[in-house]
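[job 0412] stage=complex_fold ligand=fe (ii) ion status=START
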Amino acid sequence: MAKSFRILHITDPHLHAHRAARMRGVNTDDTLVATLRHALADPHRPDAILATGDIVQDETRVGYERFRELTADRGLPVYVLPGNHDSPAIMRDVLSGAPFQFCGVAEHGDWSLVMLNTFASNDDGGLLAPGELEFLERTLAGHQSRHCLIALHHQPVPMGSRWLDGVPLRNAAEFLTICDRHAHIRGIVWGHVHQASDRDRNGVRLMSTPSTCAQFRPGSDDFALDTLPPGYRWLDLHADGSIDTSIVWVE
Ligand SMILES: [Fe+2]
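[job 0412] stage=complex_fold status=DONE, emitting structure tokens
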């Protein structure tokens, strides 16, 4: 049986220039360190790390350098894409060159991982620019014989939380229209919403992953924190196109 592609999905670490800085009472450096330690102690090693944005909270180069320091020497490719809090230019500058890849497509076995940039200036919501939509369409068309997992920062479907649904992927309809044309998409994963979710849409698995720092309370109309600890997601992408996945909470 062909080997599965195992991804460690982390998201929204919100690092700061100053390592002692806290966000909503949480030292985000400590929680990212603890999350990576927990996940990489698992005897079933991942084949790659995927980080879906809000790597840095304060748009500083130092924050990206810290992320690089924590992830570069793990013997794994590290796939990154930007969120609304990121500075894509600085991020691309610091997190490029092996083992890092900023957006684009990565192939492992029977799977293609398609990573999108939804950053939009002066907006906590996201947008796929025309070039990014073209890239998606072209990549999906060129990878017809493979299973595809799409990763992005912003949610392409409502989360049932009024304030978060005010800052979604703004052109989700265009994105989903493209997705609906391609039957080889198996899953879509995102960050941004600091909470776990898992649903099916037309046979495609849609999943959000908790942050490596604080979580947001599901279903809340207004901003509210949850009491859950940092978390991460395992994604086991099998050769037959099926996905096994689980959330791990770092107590
Ligand atoms: Fe975000």
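The mean pLDDT is 96.
[job 0412] exit 0
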